[in-house]
Amino acid sequence: MKTDSKLRKISSTLRCGSILLAVLLPLSVIYSWFMGPVAAAPVPHPVVQTPGIGSFQWFAGGLVAVISPVFLSVALFLVSRCFGNFSRGDYFSGENSKRLSGFGKWILLSGLAGLLAPTLIGLILTAHAGQGQRVFLIELGSGPLLSLLLGGLIWSFARILERATEISEENAQIV
Q1: How many angstroms separate the CA atoms of 161 and 83, rounded?
Q2: Domains of the chain, residue spans
Q3: Across 38-64, average pLDDT
Q4: What is the DSSP code string of 119-168?
Q5: How many angstroms separate the CA atoms of 14 and 7, rounded?
Q6: Residue 9 scores a pLDDT above 50
Q7: What is this structure's pTM?
Q8: Which among 35, 52, 87, 167 could bridge 12 via Cys, Cβ 3.0 to 4.6 Å?
Q9: How far apart are CA 164 and CA 80, in angstroms?
Q10: What is the torsion angle, in degrees rounded to the nearest 10, for the CA atoms of residue 123, residue 25, residue 14 and residue 99?
């Protein structure tokens, strides 16, 4: 029982931490895009310093930049609900496996958005530039690739847990 109590406390702490991160992550990207240093932008510095970037382009680029963190925040909110159930001692339930599946799905989408964002931002910010001056970026960072891999793994694992829960419920009705 001591282990269960410790696990419940850890789950409660993780729940609070995931909620805090879910709120702060998009806000920090918005701040760094619109208020922070230019070097914090998710595209190479020279693209951001292209002369003549209009307000609409800057705003559109900011919207694209915040998509991946918003997807990650959705995932963090879903996993925080799992941690909330764990802190109450509810470990194996269909609800937890569905939320874990959603967590994996949103992590996967966040990774995909993270892969596409630099390309879209580069195109948006240089759309006004003359022929031959536009930038088409392809950036393969380890963060988005790892998100794709882990998101797919968690999503698959959660689907297996969902199926196991269904089988367990069916067996309970037979007995």
Answers
A1: 16
A2: 2-174
A3: 68
A4: HHHHHHHTTTSPTTT--------HHHHHHHHHHHHHHHHHHHHHHHHHHH
A5: 10
A6: yes
A7: 0.83
A8: 87
A9: 22
A10: -50
